[in-house]
Design brief:
Transferase(Phosphotransferase), domain 1; Prot_kinase_dom; disordered C terminus; Phosphorylase Kinase, domain 1; 2 domains; two-stranded antiparallel sheet; membrane; ATP binding
Amino acid sequence: MPFGCVTLGDKKDYNQPSEVTDRYDLGQVIKTEEFCEIFRAKEKSTGKLYTCKKFLKRDGRKVRKAAKNEIIILKMVKHPNILQLVDVYVTRKEYFLFLELATGREVFDWILDQGYYSERDTSNVVRQVLEAVAYLHSLKIVHRNLKLENLVYYNRLKNSKIVISDFHLAKLENGLIKEPCGTPEYLAPEVVGRQRYGRPVDCWAIGVIMYILLSGNPPFYEEMDEDDYENHDKNLFRKILAGDYEFDPPYWDDISQAAKDLVARLMEVDQDQRITAEEAISHEWISGNAASDKNIKDGVCAQIEKNFARAKWKKAVRVTTMMKRLRAPEHTDAAKANPPAAATADGAAPTETTSSSHAKPEADGKVPAATEAATATTATAPLAAAASPEGTASTAPIATAETPATTAAPAAAPAAAPATCNGEQNTAPSATPESWNEETG
């Protein structure tokens, strides 16, 4: 199917809104994400269903950049384990992206529904993710947002493939990348440490995914008091920097040594020594017969329900904005002119805004669609406090995301924009609470 609009940014080549509605029937909004609304669309001529993502240009420069970035990246890729871009329309007011429709479930839900679940099942999931990521890396594309929420089954058939979605944070690796972004629990040490990074961050994230799928626990977990996200993230980042995770009994007692070896190699703290996606595909646990066929469902599901389903860790809505500390050095002078009224325990300025809310599960255990998207948070000031290996806090500003008014969640569960980074640095305070330029959706 040809793309509706080929030339991005060409003011003489805008599509008319009627071109979209003449070709597609757009249903009601089924999900609200950080920068866009998601519809189910039906092509009138064939009756075929697609996913439509609509970005409103009026919602800000970063929304426009996120849309353009996702279009550019998705036009470059074609792989069976990546949701394909089908059509694009750019009007004067909107970007419309039409993608393949994945009708299957998230991996979490699939595991909970299985009667039998073993290492081999996990190996099959991880292999597909590795193959897609190896393909992306061959094109020098870094996804930067790999997490369980972005892995879904393409359909509900027994042998359905896994597909990766959400590419608005993906970036071409033209030299090492420096702006930090991503979901805190999946961040690689080099991102937390404010170092330059590249494709190895995706392999670290796959290691985190594999750890969770085999044990039902996140590798880095920090108990926290209600709303104490600053200290939570700070302690979390310290653990990530040190690679402070363990194969705790009894959760790992029945897991093979080969599985533990691959997790350790994917979650190698030194990015230069970390296994690549291509190398991981050749590991005996992926390509050989080292994955155990023992049923581990009961233990894994119990921990998933404890750590994820109950607390909605995978879909938590939490925003941590600490922009006064992160905007240094741009706002150093302003900070001196207007010193904060109080300091935190570690001597740092208090956060500008800290809010959190956990979406209340509905009767079927699902999170309301309006809040489901906002699962990423910002790795903010705790990065500076916990990250620097030399013991000095980095003062480099972090890119921030504007929060479009159209993506606000219901008052009962205020959803903040997921953290994201599109290679920009925000030099002026936003009128609304900010989080990173990407992640947890």
